[in-house]
Amino acid sequence: MSSSIARTFHPRPHPTGPRPYLRALVLHLMVPLGLTLGVLSSHAPTATSAEPPEVRLEIRTSQAISIRVYVAGFGTLGAGGLGRYSADFEKIVESDLRFSGFFEVARAPAGDLNAFLDSFKTKVGSKEEVLVEGRVSAEDDKIVFEGRLYDIASRKTIMNKRYKFVERALRKAAHRFSDEIVLQLTGERGIASTSVAFVSNASGAKEVHVMDYDGYGGKQITMEKSICLSPHWSPDGQRVVYTSYSSGNPDLHVVGRYGGKPYTLSAYRGLNSSPAWAPDGKKIALTLTKDGNAEIYVMNTDGSGLRRLTSHPAIDSSPSWSPSGRQIAFTSDRSGSPQVYLMEADGSNVRRLTFAGSYNDSPAWSPKGDRIVYASRMGNNFEVFVVDIAGVSPIQLTSGKGNNENPNWSPDGRQIVFSSTRDGKRDIYLMSADGSNARRLTTRGENFNPSWSPRTGEE
User: Fold this and answer.
1) pTM of the prediction?
2) Residue 45's pLDDT band (cuts 50, 70, 90)
3) Of the candidates 187, 193, 188, which has an alpha carbon nearest to the alpha carbon of residue 163?
4) DSSP string covering 249-287, please?
5) Does the CA dihedral 62-64-65-66 come out positive or negative?
6) What crossing angle do the helices spanning 83-100 and 170-186 adopt, rounded to 10°?
7) Own/partner pairs for 162-170, CB < 8 Å, 24+ apart?
8) Of 273, 277, 285, 225, whose CA–CA distance to 249 is shortest?
């Protein structure tokens, strides 16, 4: 759990809500499209253009996936030895599009793409269909990827993109291309360029690590050689705040997203734990025990201006800001067992959110502000639940073996990252927001306390 003090509570058995959760996705967007396709050829030269949109593609998505994306085999142009780059780029883009949850992804047949497109002339389908095509070349000792997105029905180019990068940046370029495709087809940028911070003991000590959202590119960013817990991203995605025991006291430290020397933000006597950066980046909510009891406080991001928000004999911990920054969810046992509560950002108007379950903890507010995900003890295990902010009908998202804890939302609210012992030890997993499509991201060591980064300006 995000707060070790919450483990001192004593649970009582309680029935669960229905499963699985299935939330209707209603998307109705008018998406402007871009360039004229002209004569399509897999070997034609590419030029990016900023001409006004020629066509508009209307996308209507309910529960059924209504967009089919064909991925053509990415080719190479020029000198040999580039095949592995085009293959890697293609594999990453295809995986990103599948995992976005927006599309049905299919392979375009090898060979003449014009013949493939011609095969759709007399076809009447129920889905919007697009084609992704690309090629890799070399220029000035760097790799160049040119990718295109076509609307099959109109034979129009939706998007042309060109990326020039060094070999180690290939995954980043591929994720950026995937996010551009999602943006063009849905009106909202994808999450393929985002990262997940988490705690891992793979190096021997419990340190903060960062990896791509798909589990690749992992890197240890702290060298505390101690115990680190509860990492949380700044809203600009450039820093991570966490609890460190390196001084002997659990203090709050801040480190850059790529590592470096951390600085101490909060070192009050007792616990300095479960930090949560406010959406505007100006405040940090945290749990302190400096006055003897665990209470929720808020401070400026330089550590000044400390203000106490809760004042209750019970244990209050694990704050999570609403997207507007006007409210905070937190865990409290003031009713006799740990439950999720809400309050205004000034500490007023405290009200209980969860009533089902005898041990509810680690609340995380959804990016759209309509739901809160949390962990709830069911028998001997913890499971991930989600509830609307009215507290009506909590819905269980996980079940089966092991504990499922520390849930956190993706920036688009379509995915949830969490830790689980379902395969024998604690690791980081992702699942769709309805609880489906869970997949494991980490394998080395024990891994827990995941925090999903915001979309950054580097995308």
Assistant:
1) 0.84
2) very low
3) 193
4) S-EEEEEETTEEEEEEEE--SS-EEEEEE-TTSSEEEEE
5) negative
6) 40
7) 162/46, 162/48, 164/139, 164/140, 166/142, 167/85, 167/143, 170/85, 170/88, 170/89, 170/92, 170/143
8) 273
